[in-house]
Amino acid sequence: MTAGSYRICPLCEASCGLRIELHDGRVQRIRGEPDDPFSRGYLCPKALALKDLHDDPDRLRQPLVKRQGRLVPVSWNEAYAEIEVRLLPILREHGPDAVATVLGNPVVHRMGLLAYFPRLARALGTRNLFSASTLDQMPKQLSSALMFGHWFSVAVPDIDRSDFLLILGGNPLASNGSMWTVPDVRERLRALRQRGGRLVVVDPRHSETAAIADQHLAIRPGTDVFLLAALCATLFEEGRVQPGRLDEHLNGLEALRDFVQPYAPEQVAARCGLDAGAIRQLARDLAAAPRAAVYGRIGTHTTRFGTVNAWLVDALNVLTGNLDREGGAMFPKAPAFAANTLPGPAKGVRLGRRHSRVSGALEVNGELPITCLREEIQTPGPGQVRALISVAANPALSCPGGAALDAALGELDFMLSLDIYVNETTRHADVILPGRSALEVAHYDIAFSQLSIRNHARWSEALLPSEQPDDWEQLLLLSALVQGRDWRAPLAELDDAMLDEELARHLPEELRAPVRAALGDRPGPQRLVDLGLRLGPYGDAFGRRPEGLNLAQVRAAPAGLDLGPLQPRIPELLRTASGRIELAPAECLAERQALAAALDEPRPEWTLIGRRDLRSNNSWMHNLPLLAKGSERCTLQMHPDDARRLGLAEADCAWIEGAGDPLRVPVELSTTLRPGLVCLPHGWGHAGTPLRVAAQRPGVNFNALLSDRERDPLSGNAVLSGITVRIRPA
Ligand SMILES: Nc1nc2c(c(=O)[nH]1)N[C@H]1C(S)=C(S)[C@@H](COP(=O)(O)OP(=O)(O)OC[C@H]3O[C@@H](n4cnc5c(=O)[nH]c(N)nc54)[C@H](O)[C@@H]3O)O[C@H]1N2
Ligand SMILES: Nc1nc2c(c(=O)[nH]1)N[C@H]1C(S)=C(S)[C@@H](COP(=O)(O)OP(=O)(O)OC[C@H]3O[C@@H](n4cnc5c(=O)[nH]c(N)nc54)[C@H](O)[C@@H]3O)O[C@H]1N2
Ligand code: SF4
Ligand SMILES: [Mo]
């Protein structure tokens, strides 16, 4: 392997190890890295598009500033000076909450953004923090926090040792897994079935994953909560509850029984569109499997009962004795940055320490629901959002609201975007600061090492030099700037100050100086990673455990270090105030009445769900020629009987109408859906941007159809699936 050619793929949560061959500063070849202990040589078509991404002529390499309504290239210092002149008066006059920030999905794939954004947030002092998390996984984070005491104590299926996997609302064959870092999931699922294991998929659509399953339950969208309750109820009713080793660590078994009791399979079957006998049998199969895991993903989270779903998924893992056991749902032990591996007071978490100004939505994990962003911009009064900083986010396409949200972005007094493209969101910015190409930054996986099916530590070096400041340098400079400090001062001083604060947080006074010396003088995130690794559960504790890990060792292992299969972690992992698993959190129990009321909701004529495609990635990889090839992706799939009823043939256009803006879309006939169900991907609708490849196949914006008022009231997560719509021929 040529030096420096290893790179952790930054494109999705599988985080595969890639081998990237360069010649004269150009990408020659991209392959899966066979020596990666974790991804074992796997890669998907998106990884090959890293070359297109690096070479994309539309990717920004220079800052842009808006002059007379047009974004024009400027020097870095001009861009920073513009931010100073425009943003500081807003902060001075209206206070910190007048500036909102919104983080997008790629932030978690960028060590510099993830490690340094908190610095900027603290410097700003705003409470208006928003992110894609409330379009995605906040229900799981909340349920995990309530049950186990920390927002990142998320249990993942131990797929390689499991005998039974029940997947609800996830399609890992297209998404490559999510909240579950599992490279080459197809092969791992094949192996599970080969050794006699069973895969059961609950999905309204006969998805790519359902197609390779032993059993597919085509549930009605939005009704998993009843199915999950019925599975729990059946276990209680039939005397199949066997938490085993977990028994002594549980609170709330009776309260859980009480909550699910009304939902026997016979009570919910019609609502779920499933057979009561099949639900009962599934509960029995799950209980009987030697080692099983239940996994719920985005199809269960982006619904009105997202948090209740996430909770009941883990309740099932507990009731069947599969939580925290080999082959069940287990907790990774990340080598760095995982709060659940660090000593600290067990105090659980609090939800709703404050509320959003306009609709009173609860704060979750320090942020507010992103669907509140529009109204916070458009509603006058004290605390109104007047400026926005977007970091690798494209809410104009990814967030419900459509034209209204687009208009709101246009009404801001000032907008700054850290992004690599001028797109539907960043076209509203007054200043855009471009991030480096993924090949020009070093990387350590802060986030996904906490969700991985195997414990590991991997580092990738920057493969190519860059003239642009690194992500962390931009954020560090901005954090000085927003505090009115001299942003022309050397960044090393600012970084040292940040490191000192970090040390003060983790170490007693007498240890700080020697540790600081051991971390070296080179500024940047690698010192934070070294600190995290060395103080982490495998770390060398700066010499006190000489055989332990540090960054130098990880760097010396070119394709990463394997830290072994997942190990049981209860009770050590628990950070709840009681020190136990909270099997019946009060916040979830409070949903009892809403749930009972929802059981009788009538079935609409048409229901819309979303989908992902292996060759796409949310909204931002549609400008890459390699991925843009092939048939049209942004189509409305519907059952042939429905199409016939409407007089529509393949590729004819239909109108979809919902709470928001109507959409006109070509139809694709598909027997993967039941009649009455239609399916459209999100992330499309590329209008009004200079992205030349994407403009050829713009598609339509799924989220324009939706109102930004539909949320899971606990987690604040947007409702993005199971949408009631009307369909008519165009
Ligand atoms: N209807 C519907 N809506 C959905 C979903 C759904 O299933 N259905 N899924 C939701 C989910 S799960 C998510 S995570 C969100 C995603 O929501 P977002 O994060 O808002 O959307 P992305 O499309 O991921 O946009 C990423 C942005 O980051 C920029 N970018 C890419 N790489 C870099 C980089 O290296 N540096 C910088 N600075 N910028 C970069 C891109 O240009 C783009 O502007 O969408 C959500 N929206
Ligand atoms: N190729 C590709 N990979 C991606 C992304 C991408 O855009 N493209 N995005 C990345 C991101 S940001 C994320 S968060 C992950 C998401 O990863 P996943 O959670 O695996 O997301 P999806 O592939 O959208 O699969 C969701 C499934 O839920 C089903 N579903 C919809 N509604 C319901 C329901 O009410 N109940 C049930 N049981 N199922 C339902 C859908 O039919 C779909 O098959 O993927 C990541 N990986
Ligand atoms: S599965 Fe995800 S991480 Fe792996 S190569 Fe494809 S895009 Fe990259
Ligand atoms: Mo996501």
From TrEMBL:
| Keyword RNA-binding among UniProt keywords | no
The GO biological-process annotations, alphabetized, read as: cellular respiration
Identify the keywords attached in UniProt to this record, alphabetized: 4Fe-4S, Iron, Iron-sulfur, Metal-binding, Oxidoreductase
- Return the SUPFAM superfamilies for the record: ADC-like, Formate dehydrogenase/DMSO reductase, domains 1-3
Q: Which Pfam families match?
A: Molybdop_Fe4S4, Molybdopterin, Molydop_binding
Signal sequence region: none
GO MF term (any one): molybdopterin cofactor binding
The protein, known as: Anaerobic selenocysteine-containing dehydrogenase
Q: Which organism is it from?
A: Inhella inkyongensis
